[in-house]
Write a structure and sequence with these properties.
This protein has about 325 residues and is α+β, with helices and mostly antiparallel strands. The chain has helices spanning about 10-15, 60-70, 90-110, 160-165, 175-185, 190-200, 215-225, 240-250, 270-280, 315, and strands at about 5, 25-30, 40, 45-50, 75-85, 110-120, 130-135, 140-145, 150-155, 205-210, 230-235, 265, 285-290, 295-300, 305. α1 packs parallel to α3 (about 90-110), α4 crosses α5 and α4 (about 160-165) packs across α8.
Length: about 325
């Protein structure tokens, strides 16, 4: 196949016939010959993220990863711009599968794909999908930095995303119940609902999506951004038994690998907020606290060590 943009027929059958219009804020959307989308939703929060790793449902993951970041910043996703670059050996059906996965997640989020670009190129050896998320501010909620005295909450459990990706490797054997559990994990990769629940229960908080480097890296980033100290309690961090099994097989630490689907929240009264989140359908647990002395460390039954920037162990194991 020669290098080229997706043609008119491919775009119609495998892009435009798949994506739908569902947001009044999108005044001008994706169409043949249409060079830009038009949105009307007041102040706009914007984030972009590429998915370059091996992934069975890369379109869905691209939408969720971008949506998670604008949600953690206090936004409600409205629309996405999606760029899909496929290797020369890919087919129009591959494009359709990617768009179908992305559209499925947009339906769940009540958002839409308002534009983008797709092409076949020798510059890539596997599909690369980049999503730009456009969001409007959640009314009545103010994002802020972590403050000394805040308690740190983690929603759901660590390394959900890592468990999904590990399960897709050919050398991993799972029984039917475990595969069903992985299917459940795939439905947990969004934190948009987590963020909405936080915004409904408190007027101001710090929120941060947990991605590369896992919980340890996310907490370290939060503390560095606030020029604060932090302590987290490793034994308090929830890890699903199946996640722990898959991480053990792959020899990666579940606290140090891809964790889309989990959110860290810093608020003064985390012990009060966590059970309210759980009651609202978002499992949550206090795992640490923000301190004023600027030291950053993690405590476990094995002792205490300093926190630092983490190179994602799952991504590194794939190199």
């Amino acid at each position: 196949m020669r290098e080229r943009k997706a043609d008119e027929k491919e775009l119609k059958e495998h892009v435009f016939d798949i994506i739908g219009h569902r947001r009044a804020e999108v005044k001008l959307s994706a169409a043949m010959g249409q060079d830009a989308a038009k949105l009307d939703c007041g102040a706009v929060l914007v984030h972009t993220d590429p998915i370059t790793g091996k992934c069975d449902d890369i379109g869905a993951l691209a939408i969720n990863v971008a949506a998670n970041d604008v949600a953690a910043a206090g936004g409600e996703p409205v629309a996405f711009l999606l760029t899909v670059i496929l290797p020369l050996g890919a087919t129009k059906e591959d494009l359709g599968r990617i768009m179908s996965g992305a559209e499925r997640e947009c339906v769940k989020l009540n958002a839409e794909i308002a534009g983008g670009h797709s092409e076949f190129s020798s510059a890539v050896t596997r599909p690369v999908v980049n999503a730009v998320a456009l969001a409007k501010e959640i009314s009545g909620f103010t994002p802020r930095k972590p403050l000394a005295g805040d308690e740190i909450i983690l929603t759901k459990s660590a390394a959900i995303e890592a468990a999904v990706l590990i399960s897709e490797r050919e050398n991993v054997s799972l029984d039917d119940s475990e595969r069903a559990r992985i299917s459940t994990f795939r439905d947990m990769l969004s934190v948009v609902g987590d963020c909405k629940a936080v915004a409904k229960l408190t007027k101001s908080a710090y929120m941060h999506d947990v991605t590369e480097g896992g919980v340890e890296n996310a907490v370290w980033e939060a503390a560095c951004g606030a020029d604060a100290g932090v302590v987290i309690y490793a034994d308090e961090i929830p890890v699903d038994p199946l996640t722990r099994k898959l991480c053990r097989l792959t020899k990666v630490d579940p606290l140090r690998c891809l964790s889309s689907g989990s959110l860290i929240v810093a608020v003064p009264a985390g012990e009060k907020l966590a059970p309210k989140l759980t009651a609202a359908g978002v499992p949550a647990k206090v795992i640490g606290k923000v301190t004023s002395d600027k030291s950053k460390y993690i405590v476990s039954s094995a002792g205490r060590r300093e926190l630092g920037p983490v190179a994602d162990e799952l991504l590194n194991s794939e190199e």
